[in-house]
Amino acid sequence: MKLIFIGTSHGVPEADRRCSSFILEVSGSWYLIDMGTQVVEDLRKRGIAVEDVRLAICSHPHGDHTDGLISFVDLVNWYFKTADPLILLPDSRLIPPLCAWISATVEGKPLRGDLRIGSYREGVAYEDENLRVTAIRTQHCANSFALLFEAEGKKLLYTGDLCRPSVDFPRIAFETKLDLLVCETAHFSPDDCIPVFDRTKAKRILHTHVNDGRWADALARQTQAPHAYEYGAAFDGMELTI
Fold it and tell me: Which of 136, 173, 175, 186 is positioned for an S-S bond with 10, CB 3.0–4.6 A?
């Protein structure tokens, strides 16, 4: 299982950070996690066929996690016509306006009849022979979720956006051994995270959704401090084999 960090910024792009977006590879298949960027560009740059993408899933509806959806669905609809990804959104109300927008761009023609766009709820959101994805509700907004990815005997937990760690941190992190925990730090300081992280069973913890200005001092201090787990911050283009 390999995770590629496409965008690691907070709610807006920065000079060296794009909005939230990740690519996960399992056994030669590709899965998109959040889509705050034009992900097709990154797939093409890496020589990844859009036709090999099985799933695109968004953790919550906010634009910095979904603004790339229109581009992705548009290109799959009219250009990559043999691509067959399942597109899963956290709120079914997002589906009609998304489809209407794409239809309007092609003069009102209906979308491909075999285009698969759906929504998910808390619990197992997706499963194939390579990967299981479990959604865990958070309090960041009305329909926001953390996502647990299980594949090849490994476990990756992506928190999505949280209210704050002390309130709605996914309980599974305290109950299950995690090979990697990816936690946002746009809405609270890394200092607020460490007491919670210390209770988890994670081998490695990386921050994403990073605000280089707001929490820079706290992140630098905590990165230099000793921890019982490997700790740091992700950056755009970072690739990890889990």
Answer: 186
Q: What six digits make up the tokens of 58?
A: 């968004």
Other C-beta atoms within 10 Å of 17: how many? 21
Q: Which of 189, 145, 204, 149 is nearest to 170 (CA)?
A: 145
Does residue 210 lie within any of the structural domains?
yes
Task: Report phi then psi at 232, rounded to 5.
Answer: 175, -165
Indicate the helix (H) or strand (E) that contains 40. helix 39-45
Is the distance from CB of 200 to CB of 181 less than 8 angstroms?
yes
* 238 within domain boundaries: no
Q: How far apart are CA 128 and CA 130, in angstroms?
A: 5
Which pTM was predicted? Answer: 0.97
Give domain status of residue 17, yes or no.
Answer: yes
Mean pLDDT by 10 residues, the chain (242 residues): 98 95 97 97 97 98 96 96 97 96 88 96 98 98 97 98 96 98 96 98 98 91 97 98 96
Q: In a 10 Å sphere around its CB, with 0-12 CB exposed, 13-18 middle and 19+ buried, how is residue 9 labelled?
A: buried
Structural domains in the chain (count): 1
Asked, for residue 207, whether it belongs to a domain, the answer is: yes
Residue type present at position 159: T
Amino acid identity of 56?
A: A
Give, for 216, the enclosing helix (H) or strand (E): helix 216-224
Phi first, then psi: what are they for 101, rounded to 5°?
-60, -50
The CA-CA-CA angle for residues 111, 114, 119, to 5°, reads 85
